[in-house]
């Protein structure tokens, strides 16, 4: 039996493919390579280039493969972009999910592990955020993912397709050997941007907002290592295979680091000065996001290996130093 990984050429998907293969799973990958990288996909996985909206293509993949479960990473995820182009997000993310569930139902595939996000909660009423807290997204990205969760909920009731929604907090880091890592165009995330400055590719870091009600005035986030995140998907798949009901889990460390603390940690890890300046707030940034993640630890038996941000940054720095141009597969037009 095969695990089908949608979006397996992306940052998180490629780490999940790699972990699945290292644990002996048979893996097939679907990716349209719009944001993903062919070189990020472990060579032991069968690769199909195509889009979730293309039902003929998807049906062919499901005909060819004997699929025991789907991991779904194929989505757009840039919050500011979603504010400007909401329909792009509802089309790719939400409508893509409808297309996928139709094909899964047709082929009697009844398990899906889904990349959801802390952005489904919006501005939290309390910290740490629990899975049962209200989900009131403040941007179309979060809304598109919340809709996907709800669509899976109704599809469970109607067709018996069981799902696990994994609500990620802030993902960072890379496989320890530096062979795969984060390569976005454009890059918007804090850790890779800090490391671009450390590597001399950017002049300085702009820290967005210094007047938040936090310990040092900058935003606080909860960082989780990408390999730990990948492992949680495998545990979630096994949870479904054991016959458990649909469920949702936060994935975080339950510890918050401010943007300034992340900068200091990166200075320590890299030994570089990393020039930085304070800049205005970025629209849509909640002040503090910290997960209550004991549910994943208790129910899925998730045991993250990385419990401090310096180690997480160290693995990202290793990737950056060994791959200064990332996968180096983007032409000027596609950057
Ligand atoms: N930041 C800067 N300067 C930069 C880039 C980011 O100060 O150049 C700050 C942001 O303002 C924020 C923090 O660094 O305070 C983290 O920003 P990221 O863009 O790295 O991550 P976000 O917290 O905005 O978003 C991440 C995921 C989203 C997800 C969200 C949910 O990227 O997909 O977490 O928590 F929705």
UniProtKB/TrEMBL annotation:
One of its GO terms (molecular function) is UDP-glucose 4-epimerase activity. InterPro entries: Epimerase_deHydtase, NAD(P)-bd_dom_sf, UDP_G4E. Pathway: Carbohydrate metabolism; galactose metabolism. Its cofactor is NAD(+). Keywords: Carbohydrate metabolism, Galactose metabolism, Isomerase, NAD. Residues 3-252 form the NAD-dependent epimerase/dehydratase domain. Homodimer. This is UDP-glucose 4-epimerase.
């Amino acid at each position: 039996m095969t695990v089908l990984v949608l979006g397996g050429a992306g940052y998180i998907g490629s780490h999940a493919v790699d972990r699945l293969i290292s644990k002996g799973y048979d893996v097939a990958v679907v990716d349209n390579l719009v944001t993903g990288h062919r070189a990020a996909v472990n060579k032991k996985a069968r690769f199909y280039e195509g889009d979730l909206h293309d039902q003929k293509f998807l049906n062919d993949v499901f005909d060819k493969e004997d699929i025991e479960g789907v991991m779904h990473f194929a989505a757009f995820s840039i919050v500011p972009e979603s504010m400007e182009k909401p329909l792009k997000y509802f089309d790719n993310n939400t409508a893509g999910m409808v297309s996928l569930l139709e094909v899964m139902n047709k082929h009697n595939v009844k398990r899906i592990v889904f990349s959801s996000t802390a952005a489904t909660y919006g501005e939290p009423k309390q910290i740490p955020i629990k899975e049962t807290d209200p989900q009131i997204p403040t941007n179309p990205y979060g809304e598109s993912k919340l809709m996907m969760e709800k669509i899976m909920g109704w599809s469970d009731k109607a067709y018996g397709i069981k799902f696990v929604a994994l609500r990620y907090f802030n993902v960072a880091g890379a496989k320890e050997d530096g062979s795969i890592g984060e390569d976005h165009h454009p890059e918007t995330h804090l850790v890779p941007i800090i490391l671009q400055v450390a590597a001399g590719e950017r002049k300085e870091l702009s820290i967005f907002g210094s007047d938040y009600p936090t310990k040092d005035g900058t935003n606080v986030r909860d960082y989780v290592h990408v390999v730990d995140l990948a492992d949680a998907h495998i545990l979630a798949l096994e949870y479904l295979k054991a016959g458990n009901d649909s469920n949702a889990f936060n994935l975080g460390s339950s510890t918050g680091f401010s943007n300034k603390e992340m900068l200091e940690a990166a200075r320590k890890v890299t030994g570089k000065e990393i020039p930085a300046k304070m800049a205005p707030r970025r629209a849509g940034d909640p002040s503090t996001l910290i997960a209550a993640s004991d549910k994943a630890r208790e129910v899925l038996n998730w045991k993250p290996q990385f419990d401090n941000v310096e180690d997480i940054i160290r693995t990202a720095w290793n990737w950056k130093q060994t791959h200064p141009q990332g996968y180096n597969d983007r032409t000027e037009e596609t950057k």
